[in-house]
Amino acid sequence: MKKIVLIFLLILTSLMFSNFYDDLKNYVENSPEYLEALKNYMNVEFEDEFRLNFGTNINKSSLNYDFEKIMLNVPISFNYSDDFELYLAPNINGSSVTLPLGVNFSLFNFDLNLEGNFSFVNDDFRDSYSFSISKNLFDNSDESDLEKEINKLNAKRNLLNVKNQKVIEFLNNVFYSNFYSKMYDVYSKLLVLKEEELKESEEKFEKGIISEIEYLNSKKSYIAVQKNYLTYRNKKREYEKYTKYNFQKFDVEIPEKSFNKRDDLKALQLEVELNKLRMDRIYQLYIPNMTFGFEVDYNYKPLSSEKELKPKLFLNFTFDLSNQKALEEENRRLNYEISIKNLETKIEDLEDQYESLLTELESLNYDYEISKINKRIKEINYLNLKQKLEDGLITKNEYESAMYELLVEEYNLENVEFSILIQKLNIYSFLGYDLLSLLEEVL
After folding, report:
1. d(CA 393, CA 232)
2. Which of 83, 100, 137, 284 has its CA 20 to 30 A from that of 62?
């Protein structure tokens, strides 16, 4: 029978923890802040991978009708990211119809084009084809790849920050809804006892049984309890909507110090790499940018119905004649130096912030020791008063006051324990951990 009860308790506890994690996850993932950050991240993450364009260039489209013939020109293109384009440009001019159809795409840093041209002129059908492959001498696509990766890392870090903030927010709300409710209940009962004690002290003072100092101390104690009662009553109302959740106690170990998970630091490292690339390529400012390639045409011979294959090599180049090259060169050097300084400063700041977090945790551990001592003092006092009550040396009110004061210290100790837990989670978040994933393993 004991084994059955034990198994039942284990299953019940497991379900409670599971429900708590599910509540936490729903709170985070359904919050407007998280959804906004997720939307921004998705926009950056899938900006290139899933960008599809389909449409026509209005400026190049035309339709004319002069009662004798129709003239229509509607270029249409279909783009998938920057690496693939399918285009179609039907052109109708009376009885003449031409239909260029082509594909542009990139493969291994080569630009490829495949095009077919189909025409119908007075029932005469003609078709021609061409294929070309070319490469730009200065292929700097790796720079744009780095820029995209930097944007992704920054967006990912922002999403994680929001996610972790909502995790800690939920834990705070659920814990303090329970904490303030318990403190309110205790101070509600303490207030009644202190009010009775104050009346007794007032009567004794008027009769000269106790001194004015004893009376004032009793009044001071009552006012302090009254103040705390009002504070916890307001706090209880503030957190009342979170009472439907049951907080489950758990703990985590302090993680090892490492900034390798921080995506913002990775982004700064990539910025250094990007600016180093641009600085190393300063020479490109002073020499022509050449494009070389190979093209094959399969078209009709002049004044003939026969086709022929014409291969050819080509070389094109462009050269910037502006006088801003020296300025651009200096800007690239400065950008590289700035990115290095930004990275160094970031690492120094992270070191300082990490030490500050550890110091705060150490301070909370001292608070925990003090709170344990305070609780033990109240516990000893409560046990002594219990014996005195049995011996008839004190009133029941004094004994009950000591009991509630012990409860206050017990709840304060729980509060400090929770603050230590939150500080540990802050350290995890600071180092770049996903708190939702972490708690899935812990709970």
Report:
1. 33
2. 83
Contact at 8 Å (CB) between 221 and 200? no
Q: What is the pLDDT of residue 15?
A: 42
* Alpha-carbon torsion (187, 192, 193, 194), positive or negative: positive
Low-confidence ranges of the chain (pLDDT < 50): 1-17, 50-67
Whole-number pLDDT of residue 95:
65
The confidence score (pLDDT) of residue 60 equals 47
Over residues 111-158, the pLDDT tens digits come to: 888 888 888 777 778 788 888 888 887 888 889 889 999 999 999 999
In a 3-state reduction of DSSP, which class is residue 138? coil
pLDDT at 19: 87
Residue 37 tokens, joined: 């950050």
Instruction: Name the residue range of residue 392's domain.
Output: 16-45+144-271+333-442
Q: Token digits for 323?
A: 């006088």
Q: Is residue 120 part of a domain?
A: yes
DSSP readout, 314-335?
Answer: EEEEE----S-HHHHHHHHHHH
Rounded-to-integer distance, Cα 332 and Cα 402, Å: 72
Q: What is the dihedral angle through the alpha carbons of 164, 169, 170, 173, rounded to the nearest 10 degrees?
A: 170
Report if residue 182 sits inside a domain: yes
Helix or strand or coil: residue 316?
Answer: strand
pLDDT for the residue numbered 304: 74
Q: Which pLDDT belongs to residue 50?
A: 46
Residues 86, 228, single domain; the answer is no
Q: Which residues, 6+ apart, have CB-to-CB distance to 18 below 8 Å?
A: 443
Tokens at residue 397, please? 């009110």
Q: Token match 């014409």: residue?
A: 310
Measure the CA–CA gap between 9 and 156, rounded to whole angstroms.
40
Chain centroid, CA 4 distance in Å: 44
Measured in whole angstroms, how far is the alpha carbon of residue 124 from the centre of its chain?
63
Token reading at 199: 């009346």
Tokens 């294959």 locate to: 309
Task: Please report which helix (H) or strand (E) contains residue 415, including its range.
Answer: helix 396-430
> d(Cα 380, Cα 98) in Å, to the nearest integer?
100
Q: Tell me the β-bridge partners of 83.
A: none
Total domains present in the chain:
2
